Amino acid sequence: AQGGNTTARLALVDARRSLEAGSFREAESKYTAALRQLSRSENQLRAAALFGRAFAAQQRLVSGDTADLPVVPDSLLNAYREAADLNPKALGAAATDNIAVVLAAIGRKADAANAYLDAARQSNSPQHYVSAGREFDAADDVTSALRAYRQSLALDSTNAEARRALLELLARARPASEVLEAVRTFSDTVSARDVSNALVAVLVRSE
To answer: Whole-model pTM?
Structure first.
């Protein structure tokens, strides 16, 4: 069944061309039409169509192209989840990553943070932990944000963005003693500016 639906395969190729050309409304419509041609047993093709349709809708959502054709975030998120379930090896990590991006875009900060953590666990990516930390911070969950930044640094101790975010958050939200303890772990010259900024922030805060 996976190899026999030539019409649907051609429809998916056509939809991808529209997607790559930036014609997101057209691509979304074409992926929807392709899905109608696929049986429930054609898992990989259905996964590709669901993912493509969700990605086209995501691009419309983040660019604000929703006039007269609204994007329903939960429908978009469910399409990514179904695509990941149908073809986890090929699409699982990308779907999880995109789910996090969508959740952040619609203001569901804590949910976005947890989705980035899921993506980080799948990819072992330091950057996903940084993204999770930023979303936790935006959701006022300082403890979880600090943990995420430290997880990023545990994977890559040279990650400047994680180091800077960690020190900035500590200086803003934690006692001076905790900031000083963290500063001692960053003794290299590359970290000097971030360390200096954190210490200045603590001094200003204490005035």
So the answer is: 0.86
